[in-house]
Amino acid sequence: MTDSGTLAGQVVAVAADHAGVTLKDALADDLRAAGAEVVDLGTRGTESVDYPDYGAAMAEAIAAGRAPAGVLVCGTGIGISIAANRNPAVRAARCANTTDARLARQHNDANVLALGARTTGVEVAADCVRVFLTTAFEGGRHQRRVDKLAGR
Ligand code: RB5
């Protein structure tokens, strides 16, 4: 995540359940086309799977440092963000528009963007990804609040 306005060179993990896989794959293609390195944690088909497994896979990847940022997709973005947020290394924000995505970075230092494939169109989702990954955390008073999220 940078404020340089570019996706090139960023490492971004992506994961989705069956409801989100088509959008996840489209967003991953966009990221690669923009020069980002994508770590695809699945799922890879439309066979029914359980979103907690993919939220947990994202959390493990973030906690292990495989990627500094991630994009999750399920039907609504809700279940998979709840799952990812069970890991203290994750601050996943379910966003429905670019204002959500910008403020999730500026104020919350969110490191995972969660999107709903059944609720957000592909162009809005792609805009959210771009804004999320190119907006910096503001720090300052927000750092104190983010520290409290981590129990510090
Ligand atoms: C799967 O049908 C759906 O429940 C899941 O993708 C998600 O929307 C849950 O929050």
UniProtKB/TrEMBL annotation:
- Species assigned in the record: Rhodovibrio sodomensis
| Top-level taxon of origin | Bacteria
Q: Name one GO molecular function term.
A: isomerase activity
Name of protein: Ribose 5-phosphate isomerase B
Keywords of the record, alphabetical order, are: Isomerase
Q: Which Pfam families match?
A: LacAB_rpiB
UniProt key word Isomerase: yes
Q: Which family does it belong to?
A: Belongs to the LacAB/RpiB family.
Q: Does the keyword Isomerase apply?
A: yes
